[in-house]
Amino acid sequence: MTLELVTGNHAAGYALSTAGEANRSARGAACGIYPITPQTEIVEYVAKFPFSKGRVIAVESEHSAMGVSIGASMAGARAFTASSSNGLAYMTENIMVAGFYRLPIVLVAVNRTLGPPWNIWADQGDTLYLRDFPWIQLYCETNQEVLDTTLLAFRLAEDRRILLPVMVIMDAFILSHTQTETDLPEQGLVDEFLPPLSLPHRLDSARPTTVGGLTWPRETLSQRLEIDEAFERVPAVYEEHRASFRSVFGRDPGGAINVFETEDADALLVVSGTIASTAREVVRRRREAGEKIGLVKMRMFRPFPGDALLEACPRAAKFGVLDRDYAAGLGGVWWHDVRAALQGRRDGAIVQGYLTGVCGGDVTPEMIDEVIDDLLARRSAGKPLWKGIDK
Amino acid sequence: MRPGNTNCGGCGMSVGLTFLSRALKEAGQTCQLVIPACCGVVTAGGYPTTGYSVPVLASTFAASAAFASGVAAVRDLNHEPHHVICWAGDGGTYDIGLATLSAAAERNENIIYICYDNEIYGNTGGQRSSATPVGARTTTTPAGKREGKKDIMAIMAAHRIPYAASLSIAHPDDFMRKIATALLLTGFRFLLIHSPCPTGWKSEPAESIELVRLAVASGLFPVYEVFDGERYRINLRPSGGDVGEYYRRQNRFPADSIDLRSVRADDAAANKRLARLAEVFPAQG
């Protein structure tokens, strides 16, 4: 294993490209690409990669970037792309189509505040708003996680029990533009991990079908139900591929959630993305001071791993959910989903939302200390609290 | 196209599809279709049946040329012989799909893009598009459209694609020859079909072919081809049909919405410009 100093974008570009290359013995790799800060280096990496059987098409918009990837995937190639923020918003119609067409496309999304105003810093609102489409969403904390999760995403997406596209997500700049030591596996290992793709419903002249034509309510409903069933299978299938990843690459790519000191915790922080690194240190320090606090890092957002969350913290009666996003008129999206997961199963629990680092602000250890102080002092939950605002 | 589809009587698109399938058969070739939202996708009928005997991928309205670029790229990576053909209406071509179409043409993607132009949003009940001619009444231009039709052929020729051609279903020999020409070439090929729509044009279904024949004869729909955006050939010269007759036979044109004198003047100027192009920059052979 050789560690290299690379950015999150580099790690993602490397993973997408080697995954594409790994399909050279089958129908190859193809994708549409379009630049947007802060993901541009990902598509630049892909555009420079010397595929032995692949084509990278630089198009005129994010909508078409996903359009090309849909066409390529439907023709049986391994397909992927990357985007961010308003680019994801512009791409949305085709993001939806990729899901409904059950195409195993991998999209690396770099979280950036949706505009206006023009703000390039990290905020998860651009991917969380895509929550209702048939995409698996996985959030990353480190550059290594970005690389590993991207490779794992193809295995998961292409599994015939799943056949759903996967979004691999990282924070703008904090990961995308920050170099850390990362293991970039050799092509041979990626080949071993990613078998040739065989899409059961690819376009085939020997078997002419019309994909996406007029479909009656009952038949459309049955297609939606199949999507729901595939989502039900995700947690177990994910664990299979996680184990396989471990045996090929010799490290754990991470589960649907990652836990820290949760077993006996009375109060729990629920976080995602890079906030986890800071929060873990604060929790560690306060544990040493004798406070029974735990941390759950949510990696999977769709399907929402509510069962795993509850199993991880049998004692917790207080949940502080940190959201780097704001759903207008509601509060944090993670907070909302944690509340839904707890309903009827731990009804006495206090689930308090904290809006931290929204629109790209720093989430400091002091801020997390304030969150913990507030959570521990609470007798009931209230409205989500905005943090980082000068009063 | 298989028998038993539910297309309207007098539908030009259906005739175009029939000709396309015949031309493919004569050339001994096959295709995969990418169809955005339009009557062409309705032609497939209801799931799980399909009116098409080739694979069809329904694309989003704006993105047929992008979907097709992906399909064609993978076909070429795998050295497969079938053509990848976009089959789109004027809304998906002149309006919502124009940026995607332009980009695919600029990249010279190896696809055939066919626009059947019925000059209206037909599926949604007849609204104006930028292909709707001046004076035409639609549900969104109740007093008749004030603006003229966009010159999509000039736009596509300006991309210097290998082949751009306009086709009329009233002239099957020319139509079939152009499909055959497109099948022989590689790179981006654009074909424009003038496609009568009795439902939208408020015309008699039985008169569809006559109407588009009149459009050619009167010079309203110039039938020509452009190679590499540089070499022009006019295939059917206007033979002097009456523009007025074309308008009178379609109830989409209210009598008071058309200034026939100005239509004739615009028509003559457009044909003169085209004739000059064909004279100065002729296609050989």
Unreliable stretches of chain A = none
Q: What would you report as the Rg of chain A, rounded to the nearest angstrom?
A: 21 Å
CATH class annotation of chain B: Alpha Beta
Biggest sheet details of chain B: 8 strands, mixed
Number of domains of chain A: 2
> Which consecutive residue ranges of chain B, at least 5 long each, have pLDDT under 50?
none
DSSP helix count of chain A?
12
Output the CATH topology of chain B. Rossmann fold
Mean pLDDT across all amino acids of chain B: 96
Give helix and strand order of chain A, one letter per element, not per position. EHEHEHEHEHEHEEHEHEEHEEHEHEHE
- Identify the strand order in the major beta sheet of chain A: 10-12-11-14-15-16
Largest interface: A-B, 44 and 44 residues
Give the count of structural domains of chain B: 1
The largest beta-sheet of chain B arranges its strands as 2-1-3-4-6-5-7-8
Helix amount of chain B: 25-40%
Summarize the structure.
By secondary structure, chain A is of the alpha/beta class. Helix content of chain A is 40%, strand content 19%.
Summarize the SSE layout with pairings.
The complex is a heterodimer of chains A (391) and B (285).
Chain A lengths: L2 E4 L1 H14 L7 E5 L6 H9 L5 E5 L3 H13 L5 E5 H16 L5 E6 L13 H4 L7 E4 L3 H16 L7 E6 L8 E4 L3 H7 L16 E2 L5 H33 L7 E4 L6 E5 L3 H14 L4 E6 L1 E3 L3 H7 L5 E6 L9 H10 L7 E6 L9 H13 L7 E2 L5
Parallel strand pairs in A: 2-3, 4-5, 5-7, 6-7, 11-12, 11-14, 14-15, 15-16
Antiparallel strand pairs in A: 1-8, 6-13, 10-12
Helix pairs in contact in A: 1-2, 1-6, 3-4, 6-8
Chain B lengths: L11 H16 L3 E5 L3 H4 L13 E3 L5 H14 L5 E7 H6 L2 H9 L5 E6 L34 H6 L5 E6 L3 H13 L4 E6 L3 H4 L6 H10 L5 E5 L3 E6 L6 H6 L11 H21 L5
Helix pairs in contact in B: 1-7, 3-5
Walk me through what this model shows.
Chain A is an alpha/beta fold. Chain A folds into two domains: 3-249, 3-Layer(aba) Sandwich (Rossmann fold); 257-386, Rossmann fold, CATH 3.40.50. Chain A has twelve helices and 16 strands. Chain A has helices at 8-21, 40-48, 62-74, 85-100, 125-128, 143-158, 187-193, 217-249, 275-288, 306-312, 333-342, 365-377; strands at residues 3-6, 29-33, 54-58, 80-84, 106-111, 136-139, 166-171, 180-183, 210-211, 257-260, 267-271, 293-298, 300-302, 318-323, 350-355, 385-386. Chain A has a six-stranded mixed beta sheet, with helices on both faces. In chain A, strands 4-5-7-6-13 form a five-stranded mixed beta sheet. Chain A has a two-stranded antiparallel sheet with strand order 1-8. Chain A is globular. Chain B has 285 residues and is α/β, with parallel strands linked by helices. Chain B has a single domain (12-280), classed as Rossmann fold (3-Layer(aba) Sandwich). Chain B has eleven helices and eight strands. Chain B has helices at residues 12-27, 39-42, 64-77, 90-95, 98-106, 152-157, 172-184, 198-201, 208-217, 243-248, 260-280, and strands at residues 31-35, 56-58, 83-89, 112-117, 163-168, 189-194, 223-227, 231-236. An eight-stranded mixed beta sheet of chain B has the order 2-1-3-4-6-5-7-8, sandwiched between helices. The longest helix of chain B has 21 residues, at 260-280. Chain B is globular, with a radius of gyration of 18 Å. At the A-B interface, strand 2, strand 3, helix 3, helix 4 and strand 9 of A face strand 2, helix 3 and helix 5 of B. Strand 9 of chain A pairs parallel with strand 2 (56-58) of chain B, so a sheet runs across the interface.
